[in-house]
């Protein structure tokens, strides 16, 4: 990474004098020796066994590989600078991708707040995305119309003023196509010395970690003892060649049709075949320029007598679009959607001639709402993440975002296991925490999809009726008809249905049309149409879910917003009343409940040189090592608790940093007082609240606690434990209990 990269990576947190000596009792004769306990069941010295193999190089697999590669990075460089006699390496991982090249199809495009917070820690990736994305005014709206140049039925602005004020998060949401995101992620991997390899350039040497192998398809897995043996097939010199790879942990991030999931024998549960669609990726700078000047938006829902479709405007300046249209096989086939036919459909939806339509790709796809029955299997050796673990409707952009947050939850746990900090049971907490979130997000995305269908239903085009008609023709009485006649009947019924969208009927002077338009306006005003943002569910999640054994549907309730169990210690004060989800936007309310994402507040670093440097509380965790963060106030009992935490951390061989949060008006002498109270430990940081106004909540008030309490935060910025008041019992025994429970270490 280099010295400048080191400084860049730490600039957000260690602007003050960095305190890196986490284990002072191991300092002998002026030389510091960092020790690392390794659990005996992990093959850490066998070079033929790769610690982590990731299958699938989509956004989730790439983010996980970056997070794992970065973990421990700072320690390596500190060792080099200070000549420490220790060897703590990065987490070695390699990635297999069955495709020979990366797709240029835009695919997912909405990145929510929590994912942007994860990207913020990847050497400023969030800031790169924000610089590269289209201006927000070009994509903040969903537009409903009879054609892109015709009457507007309504529009919904999905951005609110607080979305730009960075009150609840240090970053904002983004609109950025998946293939562009993958380019940036690959660049981050290359900066970490990852090699991107084609099959023809490989030899038969064991993987050393840090390779992304294109054109490699996993065809067989066999979990035995302490490792997983993977057989990958690739084309080399015109012949398919198989290669065996042995790894300690296999992570399947290989998408909705996951090979790893199938080979591991893991079933999906939920709703299949919600909708079949055809996706048309095309370019038209003329259309982009028109919409940019006249009718900017992210999604355009178009309903007219000749065609119906949803246009996703990925980039108006570049004129890049994806058109989604309903698809009804077997009466319709993909051959019915030739490039020329698609051009004609696009023109019908646009409402005027365009001379520069360039159809890039045409793909059918099926919408599902399913979650894998388990995320972790084979004695915690095989793990699923992203679309391999859950398949959502695209409504609300939950798919890629949930997968990125899967990777963020998983990375520090894999690192803790590989580094010998925790046993393999820490990996099972990934399923305990993330599967309920996937179940909830599946249900919420289905609910949002149903809300999207409410618009055509209000216009007299109920999609459930269309699907029933199609099913009757396919499987019912219509199945006795010849295929050509089935097609003619289906087309005829759909043509009659679309006639309700005629200008003669759909206008204010027509009694029925006026009534429908009034209902449509009410739908938009009440927030009952398709939603884009879900701040409460995005920045926090606390789900209780039940899966009846005799049902394919999930029953769930929202009971606050955080992980309920896993690598954390819940407390009785965090229990909230259960309420069903509404499917509408709800504001995020900061919480210090165990399992919640750490609330964001800007704080000022206290040091002689950088007294004005402000960062987010989320940035106090480094992101490149397995380190916990303990928030305390500058009180005597709290300092005693911090000393106990540092002693226990030394025993558990895990890093803990103490953050002393000072009230704005009492910061004089802060650093000296903390240094004296915490001696000989130096892994602490003094900060003060950077309030925007005198009316702003204090940190402890925002967390609904007093300053006598304490908050312990995990490496993934989720709260692992809290004490709402001072610890009266032995703080050392309490912190020993806490770390034992979080890391799943028996004491």
From TrEMBL:
<keyword id="KW-0274">FAD</keyword>
<keyword id="KW-0285">Flavoprotein</keyword>
<dbReference type="InterPro" id="IPR002938">
    <property type="entry name" value="FAD-bd"/>
</dbReference>
<dbReference type="GO" id="GO:0016709">
    <property type="term" value="F:oxidoreductase activity, acting on paired donors, with incorporation or reduction of molecular oxygen, NAD(P)H as one donor, and incorporation of one atom of oxygen"/>
</dbReference>
<protein>
    <recommendedName>
        <fullName>FAD-binding domain-containing protein</fullName>
    </recommendedName>
</protein>
<dbReference type="Pfam" id="PF21274">
    <property type="entry name" value="Rng_hyd_C"/>
</dbReference>
<dbReference type="InterPro" id="IPR050641">
    <property type="entry name" value="RIFMO-like"/>
</dbReference>
<dbReference type="Pfam" id="PF01494">
    <property type="entry name" value="FAD_binding_3"/>
</dbReference>
<dbReference type="GO" id="GO:0006744">
    <property type="term" value="P:ubiquinone biosynthetic process"/>
</dbReference>
<dbReference type="GO" id="GO:0005739">
    <property type="term" value="C:mitochondrion"/>
</dbReference>
<dbReference type="InterPro" id="IPR036188">
    <property type="entry name" value="FAD/NAD-bd_sf"/>
</dbReference>
<dbReference type="GO" id="GO:0071949">
    <property type="term" value="F:FAD binding"/>
</dbReference>
<feature type="domain" description="FAD-binding">
    <location>
        <begin position="51"/>
        <end position="438"/>
    </location>
</feature>
């Amino acid at each position: 990474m280099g010295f400048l990269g080191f400084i860049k990576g730490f600039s957000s947190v260690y602007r003050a004098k960095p305190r890196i000596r986490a284990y002072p009792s191991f300092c002998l004769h002026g030389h510091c020796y960092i020790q690392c306990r390794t659990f005996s069941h992990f093959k850490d010295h066998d070079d033929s066994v790769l610690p982590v193999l990731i299958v699938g190089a989509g956004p989730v697999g790439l983010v996980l590989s970056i997070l794992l590669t970065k973990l421990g990075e700072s320690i390596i460089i500190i060792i080099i600078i200070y000549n420490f006699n220790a060897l703590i390496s990065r987490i070695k991982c390699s990635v297999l991708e069955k495709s020979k090249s990366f797709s240029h199809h835009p695919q997912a495009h909405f990145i929510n707040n929590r994912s942007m917070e994860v990207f913020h820690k990847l050497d400023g990736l969030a800031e790169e995305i924000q610089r590269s994305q289209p201006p927000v005014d070009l994509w903040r709206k969903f537009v409903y119309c009879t054609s892109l140049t015709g009457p507007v039925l309504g529009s919904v602005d999905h951005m609110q003023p607080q979305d730009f004020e960075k009150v609840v998060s240090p970053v904002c949401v983004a609109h950025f196509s998946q293939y562009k995101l993958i380019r940036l992620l690959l660049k981050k991997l290359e900066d970490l010395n990852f090699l991107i390899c084609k099959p023809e350039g490989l030899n038969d040497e064991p993987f050393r970690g840090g390779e992304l192998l294109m054109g490699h398809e996993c065809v067989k897995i066999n979990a035995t003892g302490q490792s997983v043996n993977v057989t990958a097939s690739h084309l080399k010199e015109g012949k398919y060649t198989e290669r065996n790879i042995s790894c300690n942990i296999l992570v399947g991030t290989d998408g909705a049709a996951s090979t790893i999931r199938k080979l591991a024998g893991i079933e999906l549960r939920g709703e299949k075949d919600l909708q079949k669609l055809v996706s048309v990726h095309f370019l038209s700078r003329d259309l982009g320029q028109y919409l940019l000047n006249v009718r900017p938006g992210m999604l355009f829902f178009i309903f007219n007598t000749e065609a119906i479709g949803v246009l996703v405007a990925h980039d108006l300046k570049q004129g890049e679009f994806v058109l989604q249209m309903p698809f009804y096989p077997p009466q319709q086939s993909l051959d019915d959607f030739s490039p020329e036919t698609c051009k004609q459909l696009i023109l019908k939806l646009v409402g005027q001639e365009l001379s520069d339509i360039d159809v890039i790709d045409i793909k059918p796809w099926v919408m599902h709402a399913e979650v894998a029955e388990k995320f972790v299997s084979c004695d915690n050796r095989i793990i699923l993440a992203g679309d391999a673990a859950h398949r959502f409707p695209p409504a609300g952009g939950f798919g890629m975002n949930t997968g990125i947050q899967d990777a963020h939850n998983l990375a520090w746990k894999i690192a803790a296991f590989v580094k010998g900090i925790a046993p393999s049971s820490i990996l099972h907490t990934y399923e305990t925490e993330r599967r309920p979130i996937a179940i909830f997000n599946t249900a919420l995305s289905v609910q949002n999809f149903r809300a999207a269908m409410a618009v055509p239903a209000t216009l007299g085009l109920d999609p459930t009726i269309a699907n029933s008609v199609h099913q009757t023709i396919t499987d019912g009485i219509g199945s006795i008809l010849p295929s050509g006649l089935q097609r003619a009947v289906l087309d005829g019924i759909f043509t009659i249905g679309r006639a309700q969208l005629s200008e003669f009927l759909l206008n204010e002077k027509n009694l029925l049309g006026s009534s429908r338009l009034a209902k449509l306006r009410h739908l938009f005003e009440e927030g009952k149409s398709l939603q884009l943002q879900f701040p409460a569910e995005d920045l926090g999640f606390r789900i209780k879910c039940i899966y009846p054994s005799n049902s394919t549907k999930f029953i769930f309730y929202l009971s606050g917003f955080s992980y309920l169990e896993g690598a954390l210690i819940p407390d009785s004060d965090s229990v909230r009343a259960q309420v069903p989800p509404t499917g509408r936007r709800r504001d995020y309310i900061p919480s210090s409940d165990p399992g919640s994402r750490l609330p964001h507040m800007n704080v000022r670093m206290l040091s002689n040189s950088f007294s004005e440097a402000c960062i987010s509380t989320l940035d106090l965790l480094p992101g490149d090592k397995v380190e916990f963060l303990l928030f305390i106030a500058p009180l005597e009992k709290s300092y005693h608790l911090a000393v106990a935490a540092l002693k226990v951390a030394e025993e558990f061989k895990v890093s803990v940093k103490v953050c002393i949060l000072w009230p704005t008006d009492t910061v004089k002498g802060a650093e000296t007082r903390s240094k004296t109270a915490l001696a000989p430990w130096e892994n602490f940081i003094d900060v003060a609240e950077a309030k925007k106004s005198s009316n702003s909540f204090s940190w402890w008030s925002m967390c609904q606690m007093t300053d006598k309490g304490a908050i312990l935060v995990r490496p993934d910025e989720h709260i692992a434990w809290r004490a709402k008041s001072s610890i009266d019992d032995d703080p050392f025994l309490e912190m020993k209990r806490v770390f034992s429970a979080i890391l799943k270490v028996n004491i």
